Amino acid sequence: MIAMSSALGVFTIALGMVLTPGPNMMYLVSRSITQGRRAGVISLIGVAVGFLVYLVATNLGLTAVFVAVPDLYVAVRVLGSLYLGWLAWKALKPGGASVFAPKELAEDSPWRLFSMGLMTNLLNPKIAVMYLSLIPQFVRPAAGNVLAQGFILGGIQIVVALTVNFLIVLAAGTISVFLLRRPGWLRAQRLVMGSVLAALAVRLMFDNSKALPAS
User: Fold this and answer.
1) CB neighbours of residue 156 within 10 Å
2) Tens digits of residue pLDDT in 158-215
3) Helices in 130-209 by DSSP H: which ranges?
4) Residue 166 CB partners (closer than 8 Å, separation 6+)
5) Which DSSP category does 58 fall into?
6) In whole angstroms, what separates CA 8 from the centre of its chain?
7) pLDDT: is 18 or 162 the higher one?
8) Residue-wise over 103-128: b if at least 16 C-beta within 10 A, else e?
9) Neighbours of 6 (CB within 10 A)
10) Can you give the pTM of this predicted structure?
């Protein structure tokens, strides 16, 4: 049985991460706006499979690799920080685009939508950091089977992320139209998005931990 504090902790982190614009949100919004909600949902299915890959991999030993080779984890952390910084710059630079600004994208097949959603999630540094560093901190050996706790806590994150992303897919078009009719709101959304990404990048870059907590 997992501790209630652990469940609430993962829920809070998962909610904060999914509400912070990143690669997953950008891809889902762009597809939903340019190709419709069905394309957004298919892309979200790919994102969901990416979550499952991380869930299984981390709970079946990937975390142990980073514990054994801490320099590898540091490298992943630094690369993730640089990537988040790049996303922040794209949002904050003069003429930067909002995640809800329509983009000209070619219409893709269902398979490509699925595979792009999958790869976007697998290469998302936010998700890597969450599964490799944050969620393991809420596993309590005294609370019972560590493997079961890892899967349950990861499952909480997946439910939160998919629920929020599904709502974003459904509302992307409406939000986009609302923001485009109000340039001030669009600029504010871009400023908030870029600032949050920049703060996360700085925090990740200067994290002094050399390895993941053992679970």
Assistant:
1) 20
2) 999 999 999 988 888 776 666 666 667 666 766 776 776 677 677 667 765 544 444 4
3) 146-180, 183-205
4) 41, 44
5) I
6) 18
7) 162
8) eeeeebeeeebbebbbebbbebbbbb
9) 19
10) 0.70
